[in-house]
TrEMBL record:
Organism: Dissulfuribacter thermophilus
Source organism, top-level taxon: Bacteria
Gene3D superfamilies linked: Tetracycline Repressor, domain 2 (1.10.357.10)
One family name in Pfam for this protein: TetR_C_30
Name of protein: Putative transcriptional regulator for fatty acid degradation FadQ, TetR family
InterPro entries found in the cross-reference section: DNA-bd_HTH_TetR-type_CS (IPR023772), Homeodomain-like_sf (IPR009057), HTH-type_TetR-like_transc_reg (IPR050109), HTH_TetR (IPR001647), PsrA_TetR_C (IPR041586), Tet_transcr_reg_TetR-rel_C_sf (IPR036271)
Transmembrane segments: none
Molecular function per GO: DNA-binding transcription factor activity; transcription cis-regulatory region binding
Amino acid sequence: MKNSDTRECILDACERLFADKGVRETSLRAITGTAGVNIASVNYYFGSKKGLVEAVLKRRLDPLNSERIRRLEYIRKEAELKGTRPSVREIMRAIFEPILLFKENTEHSENFLRFIARSMTDPDETVKAIFLREIRPVFELMFELLKKACPNTPDDVLFWKIQFSLGAMGHSLWGFRRLKMVPEGIDTDITSHELLELWLDFVTAGIENGI
C-alpha cells in the first residue's frame, strides 16, 4: 500500500468510527483494526490522537472553507466595483452550496457530516475547538459582508440571525431525519438544488427583515 493510500485509509476509518462512536469512545486499537494498519503507522502520520482528529477535520474543511472564502471574496469585490451592497442571498449561498456539492460528490461524505453533527453536542471539547478554529475565517468574512448588506441591523441582532440560519442549515442536512418529525404525507425527497433554494428563501427573508 502506498504511503498516501495508508494515510487516507486511516482517515477514512477514523471518520467512520468518530461518526459512529465519537472521538472519546474510539480507541487507537479500533482505528488500526478498521484501517488494517499498525499503531506505528498512526503515530508516523499523525503523531497523536489529537493530530489524527485535526487531520480528519482539515481533510474536508480546508477545501470547503477555501471555496467558501473564494466565493465570499468574489461577492465583496463585485459589490465594491458596482458600488452596491453585497447580496444577502448570494452571501448565504456561498456558505451552504459548497457543502451540498461536497455531500453529492464526495464518497462517504455522510460520515463526515455525522461526525460534525455529533461533535457539536459531544462533551469532549477537542473536536469543537478545532472545528471552530478552522471555520472562524469564513464566519468573520461572512459577518463582515452581511454587516455591509444590512447596515441598519445592529451587530448583535445580525449575529443571532446568522446563528438561526446556520442552525437551519445543519438541521436541513441531518437533523430532521434523526428526529423523525415528518408528518404523514410529507415528501422530504427533494433535490439538493431545491433544498438550497428553499433554505435561501427562508434565511434571506429572516436576515433582511428590518434592514
